[in-house]
C-alpha cells in the first residue's frame, strides 16, 4: 500500500493554554518542540504499545501545531449560505403547493465563469427544481434565490408532471473544456423514502452560451440494475480530439458499480468490484452529536489525468480505492477476471467528497467525524489539514478544484444528517458554499473555526493514536 490516510482526531481542550505558554518536550523515541512559529515532531519506529501510551501527549502537541502554526494558510470563505434553500418560484400554484423547503438539500456544485450550478436531487417530495444556478458576483455570505436551469420548463416534476424528456433528479454535474454542462439524471424520485425509478437514467449536455440541450444519451437496460442510482460523474478528456470524444465514469451508489460512457461511440458498460459495495460495519455515521445510518455504496469519485487513475470510495467505508482508466475504458472484464483495483489508504472515518489537485495529484477528502478538509500526496506522503470547522464542515458533499477560479478549492457543505433525520432547524445555517482562500500573513491567534497547517506530521493520521 502506497501510504495511509490515517487517523484525524481533534480535541479542543488544552489548546489555548498550550498556544499561550509554549512547550518543549523530550521523550524516548519522540522529540517535540513548540514555539510561536510552529512545531516539528519526529517519531522513530515506536512500537504499537508505545504509541498508544503516548497518544494523549502526541494529540495535544499535534493540535497545538495546527492552531499555532505561522505559515501561509487557507481560510474558509463563505460564498453563499442558507438556513433552507430559497427558490425564485414561478407564479404557478402547483409549484407553490408542492414546495417543502425542509426536504431540500443540495448534493453537488459546479463553478462556471459567471454562475454556480447547484444540484438538488429529489431525495424526498417537495423539490421545485433539481438543477439550479446562482450568480457568482454576490456579496459574501449572501442567501440568493435559486434560479432553475436552464428554465422552469425543464422541471415539470416539481409540480408533479413526470416527463422523461425533462430533468427528473440530478445529484452532480460537470463542466467540460468546451463550456458545456454535462448532467447525469438519475431518473429516481424520493430516493430516501420509497425509491421510485420513474424514468431511465440519462446524460444531458447543455451549451452554456445558449442554454440549449446539445446532446442526450439514455442508458440501455443491460447496464442498469433495478436499484440503480447514478450520483457522481467524472469527465476524462485526456485523449479527446473533439468536445464529444470523452469518457464519463459514473457512480451507481445503490446498485454498486461504475458506469462508463464512451462519448465517441455512444456505448456504455458497467464495471463492478466488491470494494464498490458498502461495508455494514461502517453504515453508521457520527457527526458531532448526531448519528445516522445509511448503507450506500460507491459515491465519491476523483480523477488524476496525469496518473490515468480514478479514485473512489463507498459512503459506508473508511477505505479509499483506485482503478486505472485503461481498465475502465477496456469494457467490462471477461467472466472470471477481476478489475485491477488498488487499496490506496484508510481514512479516520467515512466521507463522501473526493478531489484531486491536477497540479500535483494531491488527494483531498473530508472525513465526517473529524469535520475537516484533509490533503494527502501519495507520492511524497505529505499530509495537510486545509480546514477544520465543526460548525461549517459537518457533511461535505463536494470538493472541487476549480479551473474557473484560478485553481481554488470550492466546497459544498450541508447538515445532511439533520435533513435525513428530519430534524433540520430553520434558524440555523444548514447549507454553505465555500472556498479555501490563501491567507498570506501569520496566524497570531488561534482560529478554531478554520485553520490550516501546510506540513504536519504523518503520524497525526495514525490509527493507533486514540484514547
Automatic annotation (TrEMBL):
<dbReference type="Pfam" id="PF03022">
    <property type="entry name" value="MRJP"/>
</dbReference>
<dbReference type="InterPro" id="IPR017996">
    <property type="entry name" value="MRJP/yellow-related"/>
</dbReference>
<keyword id="KW-0732">Signal</keyword>
<protein>
    <submittedName>
        <fullName>Protein yellow</fullName>
    </submittedName>
</protein>
<dbReference type="InterPro" id="IPR011042">
    <property type="entry name" value="6-blade_b-propeller_TolB-like"/>
</dbReference>
<comment type="similarity">
    <text>Belongs to the major royal jelly protein family.</text>
</comment>
<dbReference type="GO" id="GO:0005576">
    <property type="term" value="C:extracellular region"/>
</dbReference>
<keyword id="KW-0964">Secreted</keyword>
Amino acid at each position: 500500500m502506497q501510504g495511509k490516510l490515517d487517523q484525524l482526531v481533534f480535541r479542543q481542550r488544552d489548546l489555548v493554554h498550550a498556544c499561550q505558554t509554549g512547550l518543549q518536550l523530550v521523550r524516548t523515541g519522540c522529540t517535540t518542540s513548540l514555539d510561536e512559529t510552529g512545531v516539528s515532531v519526529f517519531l522513530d519506529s515506536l512500537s504499537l504499545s508505545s504509541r498508544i501510551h503516548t497518544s494523549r501527549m502526541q494529540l495535544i502537541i499535534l493540535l497545538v501545531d495546527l492552531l499555532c502554526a505561522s505559515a501561509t494558510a487557507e481560510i474558509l470563505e463563505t460564498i453563499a449560505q442558507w438556513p433552507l434553500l430559497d427558490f425564485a418560484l414561478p407564479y404557478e400554484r402547483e409549484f407553490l403547493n408542492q414546495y417543502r423547503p425542509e426536504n431540500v438539500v443540495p448534493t453537488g456544485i459546479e463553478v462556471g465563469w459567471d454562475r454556480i450550478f447547484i444540484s438538488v436531487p429529489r431525495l424526498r417530495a417537495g423539490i421545485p427544481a433539481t438543477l439550479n444556478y446562482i450568480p457568482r458576483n454576490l456579496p459574501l455570505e449572501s442567501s440568493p434565490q435559486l434560479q432553475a436551469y436552464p428554465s422552469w420548463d425543464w422541471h415539470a416534476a416539481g409540480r408533479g408532471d413526470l416527463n422523461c424528456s425533462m430533468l427528473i433528479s440530478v445529484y452532480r454535474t460537470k463542466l467540460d473544456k468546451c463550456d458545456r454542462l454535462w448532467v447525469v439524471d438519475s431518473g429516481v424520485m424520493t430516493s430516501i423514502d420509497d425509491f421510485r425509478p420513474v424514468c431511465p437514467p440519462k446524460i444531458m449536455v447543455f451549451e452554456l452560451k445558449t442554454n440549449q440541450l446539445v446532446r442526450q444519451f439514455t442508458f440501455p437496460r443491460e447496464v442498469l440494475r433495478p436499484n440503480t442510482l447514478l450520483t457522481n460523474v467524472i469527465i476524462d478528456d485526456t485523449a479527446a480530439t473533439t468536445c464529444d470524444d470523452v469518457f464519463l465514469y459514473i457512480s451507481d451508489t445503490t446498485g454498486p458499480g461504475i458506469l462508463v460512457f464512451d462519448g465517441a461511440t455512444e456505448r456504455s458498460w458497467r464495471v463492478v468490484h466488491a470494494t464498490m459495495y458498502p461495508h455494514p460495519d461502517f453504515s453508521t455515521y457520527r457527526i458531532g452529536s448526531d448519528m445516522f445510518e445509511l448503507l450506500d455504496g460507491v459515491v465519491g469519485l476523483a480523477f488524476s489525468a496525469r496518473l490515468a487513475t480514478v479514485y473512489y470510495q463507498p459512503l459506508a467505508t473508511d477505505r479509499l480505492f483506485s482503478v486505472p482508466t485503461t481498465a475502465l475504458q477496456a469494457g467490462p472484464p471477461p467472466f472470471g477476471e477481476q478489475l485491477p483495483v488498488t487499496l490506496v489508504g484508510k481514512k479516520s472515518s467515512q466521507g463522501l467528497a473526493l478531489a484531486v489537485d491536477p497540479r500535483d495529484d494531491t488527494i483531498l477528502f473530508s472525513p465526517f467525524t473529524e469535520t475537516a478538509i484533509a490533503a494527502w500526496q501519495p507520492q511524497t506522503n505529505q499530509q495537510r489539514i486545509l480546514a477544520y470547522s465543526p460548525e461549517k464542515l459537518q457533511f461535505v458533499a463536494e470538493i472541487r478544484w476549480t479551473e474557473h477560479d484560478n485553481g481554488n478549492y470550492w466546497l459544498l457543505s450541508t447538515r445532511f444528517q439533520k435533513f435525513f433525520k428530519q430534524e433540520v432547524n430553520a434558524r440555523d445555517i444548514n447549507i454553505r458554499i465555500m472556498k479555501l482562500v490563501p491567507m498570506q500573513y501569520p496566524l497570531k491567534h488561534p482560529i478554531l473555526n478554520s485553520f490550516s497547517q501546510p506540513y504536519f506530521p504523518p503520524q497525526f493520521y495514525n490509527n493507533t493514536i486514540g484514547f
